[in-house]
Amino acid sequence: MPIKSHFRLLIDALKLSRVNNLFIIGCTQYAGAVFVLGRNQNPFDLLMDARLLGLVVATMIVAASGYFINDYYDIKIDLINKPNKVIVGKNIKRRPVMLAHLGMNTAGILLGVWVSVWVGLVNLVCAVLLWWYSNQLKRLPFVGNFVVALMTAATLLVLGVFYQRFDLLLFVYAFFAFGITLIREVIKDIEDMEGDERFGGATLPIVIGMRKTKYVLYVLMVAFFFALCYFLYRLASLEMTIYFSIMGLFYVHFIGLLVRADTKIAFTRLSNYCKWLIVAGIFSMAILYI
């Protein structure tokens, strides 16, 4: 195979693994370890911890495997929803994708076991859930959304498993990631209605319609807001209260955009907005540490 073909294959594999998302996952876990659970420790020692590196790499491998299997099962749907981004079946054959999925899951679980038996168990559960989600759950109303949100929160909660310490601050960040991801996943279902409906999907917007799904989103967003306010009250941190109050302005702007959204492009922008809200929330770990 020519060098050019190898390079193209590498680029396609990176696109398939959502390398940008993996980078965010890695930064989130290191930020959680250094700025939340390791506030009283030397940051350099934490960054040089081989087992923490193993945990981060294992998490990223399992996540990448989840993206591989998701695209494997979604070829026909993606040809409708995002035809220009389809890789599996076009640039890379389906069988190598499935083999890569199995190989990465095995590597991620074994590396997790090396870090800690409990981390390995968490990775095993996550790998199974990600496969189940791609194979079946994502086509059900709300269930798949909840599973993805739970997996997002697990990227932080696994740090508590590793350090055998569940700090309230860590839980608050995990809850924040869970809530915004849940909202984003429901929005993505609205965005992908056309392809999902054509191939027998039964996601929330297909079952109850886009208008009622937006009402569900309003309820979720209000519930998430008040729950987060309660956790901030429990933390009694002036810095966090100020930071998330500023973020609240963007949250209100987001709700305004959601109210007016009625096209695929509008919902795509809202989905990206959610991702930046998550990044901004995680970034606060470093700011508050300083």
Structure, explained:
By secondary structure, the chain is mainly alpha-helical. It has one domain (3-289): Farnesyl Diphosphate Synthase (Orthogonal Bundle). Helix content is 83%, strand content 0%. The protein has 14 helices and no strands. The chain has helices at residues 3-16, 19-37, 43-47, 50-73, 75-81, 94-115, 117-135, 143-163, 168-191, 193-198, 204-208, 210-235, 238-260, 264-289. α13 (238-260) packs antiparallel against α14. The longest helix is centred in the C-terminal third of the chain and has 26 residues, at 210-235. The chain is globular and about 50 Å long. The model has no long low-confidence stretch (mean pLDDT 89).
The CATH topology annotation reads as Farnesyl Diphosphate Synthase
The CATH class, by name, is Mainly Alpha
Query: What oligomeric arrangement do these chains adopt?
Result: single chain
Class derived from helix and strand content: mainly alpha
Output the number of helix runs. Answer: 14
Membrane topology: Multi-pass membrane protein
Pfam families: UbiA (PF01040)
Transmembrane segments: 20-38, 50-69, 107-133, 140-162, 168-187, 215-236, 242-261, 273-289
GO molecular function, one term: transferase activity, transferring alkyl or aryl (other than methyl) groups
